[in-house]
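Whiteboard transcription, Tuesday session. T.W. wrote the C-alpha coordinates on the left side:
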Protein backbone atom coordinates (compact mmCIF):
# COMPACT_ATOMS: atom_id res chain seq x y z
CA UNK A 1 0.00 0.00 0.00
CA UNK A 2 1.47 3.36 -1.03
CA UNK A 3 1.72 6.01 1.65
CA UNK A 4 1.24 9.78 1.33
CA UNK A 5 2.22 12.53 3.77
CA UNK A 6 -0.27 15.40 3.70
CA UNK A 7 0.85 18.52 5.56
CA UNK A 8 -1.83 20.77 6.97
CA UNK A 9 -4.18 17.92 7.86
CA UNK A 10 -6.56 20.14 9.82
CA UNK A 11 -6.78 22.62 6.97
CA UNK A 12 -9.64 23.05 4.54
CA UNK A 13 -7.82 21.63 1.49
CA UNK A 14 -5.58 19.21 3.37
CA UNK A 15 -8.45 17.37 5.03
CA UNK A 16 -10.22 16.96 1.68
CA UNK A 17 -6.99 15.48 0.26
CA UNK A 18 -6.82 13.01 3.15
CA UNK A 19 -10.48 12.09 2.73
CA UNK A 20 -10.04 11.29 -0.97
CA UNK A 21 -6.73 9.47 -0.50
CA UNK A 22 -8.12 7.18 2.18
CA UNK A 23 -11.15 6.41 0.03
CA UNK A 24 -8.80 5.52 -2.85
CA UNK A 25 -6.92 2.99 -0.74
CA UNK A 26 -3.78 4.93 0.22
CA UNK A 27 -2.20 4.94 3.65
CA UNK A 28 -1.94 8.53 4.86
CA UNK A 29 0.30 10.36 7.30
CA UNK A 30 -1.14 13.74 8.23
CA UNK A 31 0.62 16.62 9.96
CA UNK A 32 -0.93 18.85 12.61
CA UNK A 33 0.54 21.76 14.52
CA UNK A 34 -1.39 20.93 17.69
CA UNK A 35 -1.87 17.36 18.99
CA UNK A 36 -5.18 18.45 20.51
CA UNK A 37 -6.68 18.60 17.01
CA UNK A 38 -6.04 14.96 16.10
CA UNK A 39 -9.42 13.80 17.39
CA UNK A 40 -11.08 16.56 15.37
CA UNK A 41 -9.68 15.08 12.15
CA UNK A 42 -10.63 11.51 13.01
CA UNK A 43 -14.16 12.50 14.03
CA UNK A 44 -14.65 14.59 10.89
CA UNK A 45 -13.60 11.70 8.64
CA UNK A 46 -15.79 9.23 10.52
CA UNK A 47 -18.66 11.68 10.01
CA UNK A 48 -18.13 11.26 6.26
CA UNK A 49 -18.11 7.45 6.49
CA UNK A 50 -14.34 7.26 5.94
CA UNK A 51 -12.27 4.70 7.81
CA UNK A 52 -9.18 6.04 9.57
CA UNK A 53 -7.55 2.63 9.96
CA UNK A 54 -4.78 3.66 7.53
CA UNK A 55 -4.38 7.20 8.89
CA UNK A 56 -1.53 8.27 11.19
CA UNK A 57 -1.22 11.81 12.53
CA UNK A 58 2.02 13.55 13.51
CA UNK A 59 2.70 16.84 15.24
CA UNK A 60 5.12 19.11 13.40
CA UNK A 61 5.70 22.73 12.45
CA UNK A 62 6.77 24.41 9.23
CA UNK A 63 9.60 26.24 10.98
CA UNK A 64 11.14 23.38 13.02
CA UNK A 65 12.70 20.02 12.18
CA UNK A 66 11.03 18.17 15.05
CA UNK A 67 8.51 15.59 13.90
CA UNK A 68 9.40 15.58 10.21
CA UNK A 69 11.47 12.38 10.29
CA UNK A 70 8.68 10.37 11.86
CA UNK A 71 6.04 11.81 9.53
CA UNK A 72 8.02 11.36 6.30
CA UNK A 73 9.59 7.95 6.89
CA UNK A 74 8.12 5.29 4.62
CA UNK A 75 6.14 7.73 2.48
CA UNK A 76 6.02 7.41 -1.29
CA UNK A 77 4.50 10.83 -1.92
CA UNK A 78 4.22 14.24 -0.28
CA UNK A 79 1.32 16.66 -0.67
CA UNK A 80 2.68 19.86 0.89
CA UNK A 81 -0.52 21.78 1.49
CA UNK A 82 0.31 23.62 4.72
CA UNK A 83 1.09 27.33 4.48
CA UNK A 84 0.13 30.41 6.51
CA UNK A 85 -3.26 31.88 5.55
CA UNK A 86 -5.48 34.39 7.33
CA UNK A 87 -8.02 37.07 6.47
CA UNK A 88 -7.16 38.96 9.65
CA UNK A 89 -3.36 39.07 9.32
CA UNK A 90 -1.60 41.25 6.75
CA UNK A 91 1.97 41.36 8.10
CA UNK A 92 4.79 39.75 6.15
CA UNK A 93 6.32 38.17 9.26
CA UNK A 94 3.28 35.92 9.57
CA UNK A 95 3.20 34.84 5.93
CA UNK A 96 6.44 35.06 4.01
CA UNK A 97 9.36 33.44 5.83
CA UNK A 98 7.29 30.63 7.41
CA UNK A 99 5.98 29.70 3.95
CA UNK A 100 9.47 29.67 2.44
CA UNK A 101 10.97 27.78 5.39
CA UNK A 102 8.14 25.28 5.29
CA UNK A 103 8.66 24.50 1.61
CA UNK A 104 12.42 24.11 1.98
CA UNK A 105 12.03 21.91 5.05
CA UNK A 106 9.36 19.72 3.46
CA UNK A 107 11.40 19.21 0.29
CA UNK A 108 14.58 18.51 2.24
CA UNK A 109 12.89 15.72 4.16
CA UNK A 110 11.25 14.43 0.99
CA UNK A 111 14.71 14.11 -0.53
CA UNK A 112 16.10 12.48 2.63
CA UNK A 113 13.44 9.75 2.52
CA UNK A 114 13.50 9.21 -1.25
CA UNK A 115 9.93 10.33 -1.86
CA UNK A 116 8.88 9.64 -5.45
CA UNK A 117 6.89 12.81 -6.03
CA UNK A 118 5.95 16.05 -4.31
CA UNK A 119 2.82 18.05 -5.08
CA UNK A 120 2.92 21.60 -3.71
CA UNK A 121 -0.14 23.76 -3.06
CA UNK A 122 0.53 27.23 -4.42
CA UNK A 123 -2.02 29.79 -5.67
CA UNK A 124 -2.97 32.01 -8.57
CA UNK A 125 -1.59 34.69 -6.27
CA UNK A 126 1.88 33.45 -7.28
CA UNK A 127 1.09 33.96 -10.97
CA UNK A 128 -0.44 37.42 -11.11
CA UNK A 129 -0.98 40.22 -8.62
CA UNK A 130 -2.54 42.91 -10.80
CA UNK A 131 -5.45 43.47 -13.15
CA UNK A 132 -3.23 43.13 -16.19
CA UNK A 133 -5.20 41.15 -18.75
CA UNK A 134 -3.65 38.22 -20.61
CA UNK A 135 -5.35 35.50 -22.58
CA UNK A 136 -3.09 32.74 -21.28
CA UNK A 137 -0.84 32.47 -18.24
CA UNK A 138 1.91 29.86 -18.11
CA UNK A 139 4.92 28.77 -16.06
CA UNK A 140 6.84 31.89 -17.05
CA UNK A 141 4.32 34.21 -15.35
CA UNK A 142 5.04 35.24 -11.78
CA UNK A 143 3.76 37.85 -9.38
CA UNK A 144 6.39 40.48 -8.62
CA UNK A 145 7.43 40.08 -4.98
CA UNK A 146 9.06 43.53 -5.10
CA UNK A 147 5.82 45.25 -6.10
CA UNK A 148 5.09 47.65 -3.21
CA UNK A 149 1.37 46.88 -3.54
CA UNK A 150 1.64 43.09 -3.39
CA UNK A 151 -0.13 41.48 -0.43
CA UNK A 152 1.87 39.52 2.13
CA UNK A 153 -0.07 36.39 1.18
CA UNK A 154 0.69 36.77 -2.54
CA UNK A 155 4.34 37.45 -1.78
CA UNK A 156 4.54 34.34 0.41
CA UNK A 157 3.03 32.12 -2.28
CA UNK A 158 5.29 33.56 -4.98
CA UNK A 159 8.53 33.21 -3.03
CA UNK A 160 7.61 29.80 -1.61
CA UNK A 161 6.90 28.35 -5.05
CA UNK A 162 10.07 29.89 -6.45
CA UNK A 163 11.99 28.34 -3.55
CA UNK A 164 10.50 24.94 -4.38
CA UNK A 165 11.58 25.04 -8.01
CA UNK A 166 15.01 26.38 -7.04
CA UNK A 167 15.51 23.54 -4.54
CA UNK A 168 14.38 20.98 -7.11
CA UNK A 169 16.83 22.26 -9.73
CA UNK A 170 19.76 22.83 -7.36
CA UNK A 171 19.42 19.37 -5.80
CA UNK A 172 19.36 17.64 -9.18
CA UNK A 173 15.66 16.74 -9.44
CA UNK A 174 15.66 14.30 -6.48
CA UNK A 175 11.93 13.62 -6.94
CA UNK A 176 9.19 14.54 -9.38
CA UNK A 177 7.55 17.88 -8.61
CA UNK A 178 4.19 19.36 -9.55
CA UNK A 179 2.48 22.53 -8.34
CA UNK A 180 -1.24 23.27 -8.05
CA UNK A 181 -2.26 26.94 -8.36
CA UNK A 182 -5.95 27.22 -7.44
CA UNK A 183 -7.94 30.44 -7.40
CA UNK A 184 -10.42 31.22 -4.60
CA UNK A 185 -11.23 27.85 -3.03
CA UNK A 186 -14.83 27.43 -1.89
CA UNK A 187 -17.28 24.62 -1.19
CA UNK A 188 -18.22 22.09 1.45
CA UNK A 189 -16.03 21.61 4.51
CA UNK A 190 -15.38 18.19 6.02
CA UNK A 191 -14.79 19.60 9.50
CA UNK A 192 -16.30 22.60 11.26
CA UNK A 193 -13.54 24.78 9.77
CA UNK A 194 -15.00 26.47 6.69
CA UNK A 195 -11.60 27.71 5.53
CA UNK A 196 -10.32 31.23 5.04
CA UNK A 197 -11.62 31.44 1.46
CA UNK A 198 -15.16 30.58 2.52
CA UNK A 199 -15.10 33.18 5.27
CA UNK A 200 -15.48 35.96 2.71
CA UNK A 201 -18.56 34.20 1.31
CA UNK A 202 -19.91 33.70 4.85
CA UNK A 203 -19.38 37.38 5.65
CA UNK A 204 -21.49 38.42 2.66
CA UNK A 205 -24.19 35.83 3.43
CA UNK A 206 -24.40 36.87 7.09
CA UNK A 207 -24.46 40.60 6.33
CA UNK A 208 -21.14 41.33 8.06
CA UNK A 209 -19.87 42.35 4.63
CA UNK A 210 -22.87 44.19 3.10
CA UNK A 211 -21.61 44.09 -0.48
CA UNK A 212 -19.73 41.51 -2.49
CA UNK A 213 -16.44 42.95 -3.71
CA UNK A 214 -15.53 42.29 -7.36
CA UNK A 215 -13.04 39.45 -7.76
CA UNK A 216 -10.09 39.63 -10.15
CA UNK A 217 -9.88 35.84 -10.44
CA UNK A 218 -12.13 32.80 -10.51
CA UNK A 219 -13.09 30.29 -7.88
CA UNK A 220 -12.93 26.51 -7.63
CA UNK A 221 -14.58 23.81 -5.52
CA UNK A 222 -12.34 22.45 -2.77
CA UNK A 223 -13.18 18.88 -3.77
CA UNK A 224 -11.84 19.54 -7.26
CA UNK A 225 -8.69 21.10 -5.80
CA UNK A 226 -8.08 17.99 -3.69
CA UNK A 227 -8.74 15.75 -6.69
CA UNK A 228 -6.27 17.81 -8.74
CA UNK A 229 -3.56 17.23 -6.12
CA UNK A 230 -4.10 13.49 -6.23
CA UNK A 231 -4.28 13.31 -10.02
CA UNK A 232 -1.06 15.34 -10.24
CA UNK A 233 0.53 12.91 -7.78
CA UNK A 234 -0.56 9.91 -9.83
CA UNK A 235 0.04 11.20 -13.36
CA UNK A 236 3.64 11.46 -14.68
CA UNK A 237 2.52 13.98 -17.30
CA UNK A 238 2.16 16.58 -14.52
CA UNK A 239 5.85 16.42 -13.63
CA UNK A 240 7.72 19.72 -13.71
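and on the right, the sequence the group agreed on:
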Amino acid sequence: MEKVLVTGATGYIGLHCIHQLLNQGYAVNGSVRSPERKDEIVNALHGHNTSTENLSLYTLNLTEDAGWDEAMEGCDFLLHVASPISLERTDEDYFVQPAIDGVKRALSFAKKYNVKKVVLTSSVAAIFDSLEKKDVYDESDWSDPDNPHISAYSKSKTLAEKAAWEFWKTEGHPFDLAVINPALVVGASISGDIGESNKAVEMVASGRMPVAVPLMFGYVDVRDVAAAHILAMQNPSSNG
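Someone added at the bottom: Helices lie at 12-23, 38-46, 68-72, 92-112, 152-170, 196-206, 222-234.
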